[in-house]
Amino acid sequence: MEEKTVKWAILGPGKIAKKFVTGLKDVEGAELYAVASRSKERADAFAEEFNATKAYSSYEEMLKDEQVDVVYIATPHVFHFGNTLLCLEHKKAVLCEKPFAMDTEQVKKMIAMAREKKVFLMEALWTQFLPHFQYVMDLLKKEKYGKLKKIEADFGFHSPFNEEHRLYNKSLGGGSLLDIGIYPIFTALSALGIPERISAKAKMTTTEVDEECEMLFNYKNGAEAELHSTVGRETGTTATFYCEKAEIKMNSRFHEPTSVTISTEDGNETKDFNVTANGYNFEAAHVQEMLKHGRIESDQMTFEKSLQLIELLDKVRTKISLVY
């Protein structure tokens, strides 16, 4: 029997949506079917550039289209909650960009509605599905190089200060923490679980969001994670795992497809994963697999993991007095 084509719809045709649909081209059985924007011009331009069948100037109109199987939400953080609930109300499966929402309460409501409506919902934390990331997490889980003692992970790039820009605009959920600090935190959560203690400090902008955030997570077993995010300067953007018998390093930029270097007493070995696509294909293929099996929740990027992640983000925000 021939596999059913999954018709994808894009809600919010911005920069990240362009990356996602580029990755979608490498997913078997995926079709970019529709796009919706509050601007008809933007929807039309996106549809033309990426060959989508339909372009809508209203989210509701797109969600009423019975052909739509799953919606990828790519709007700014502050809109994730409302956009997700709208999609779930219309019984549309949802892959929503990270951070899932602005706080734990919103995420709990999103998950509750997905369960109530029996509709698939997942946070689009694409790193979870990348081969190099899964490889390293497997090494750590099996303790191939002994116990994990420490993690150092950072993510930084330079974005000139502009109070209107999404990254610096408080009303759009700006700041380094929610945008990119989420990746080092997610990495620590994946490798070590929930920390016992969190300390954090931030450099704030005149728009009252964090330009830079430094975090230290301490764990019951004595392990620690030094995490850092900044939109004020370029950093190595690597993640290093210090185990008893080796250092395992996800090379730059660790959150996207990259190589892994393992350093032991015998020397260094770098493993390349030969990913030819842009990497967004892995999470999209996973969503299609879940839909095929009638799941409402991913077995990898679970509701529990998304809840733990937003709870950690909330705790760090409290520490640095970041209030939206």
TrEMBL record:
- PANTHER family (alphabetical): OXIDOREDUCTASES, TRANS-1,2-DIHYDROBENZENE-1,2-DIOL DEHYDROGENASE
Name the chain's protein.
Gfo/Idh/MocA family oxidoreductase
| Listed SUPFAM superfamilies | Glyceraldehyde-3-phosphate dehydrogenase-like, C-terminal domain, NAD(P)-binding Rossmann-fold domains
Residues of the GFO/IDH/MocA-like oxidoreductase domain: 133-248
Q: Which Gene3D superfamilies match?
A: Dihydrodipicolinate Reductase, domain 2, NAD(P)-binding Rossmann-like Domain
Q: Which InterPro entries match?
A: Gfo/Idh/MocA-like_OxRdtase_N, Gfo/Idh/MocA_domain, GFO_IDH_MocA-like_dom, NAD(P)-bd_dom_sf
Q: Where are the transmembrane segments?
A: none
The family line of this record is: Belongs to the Gfo/Idh/MocA family.
> Upper taxonomic classification of the species?
Bacteria, Pseudomonadati, Bacteroidota, Flavobacteriia, Flavobacteriales
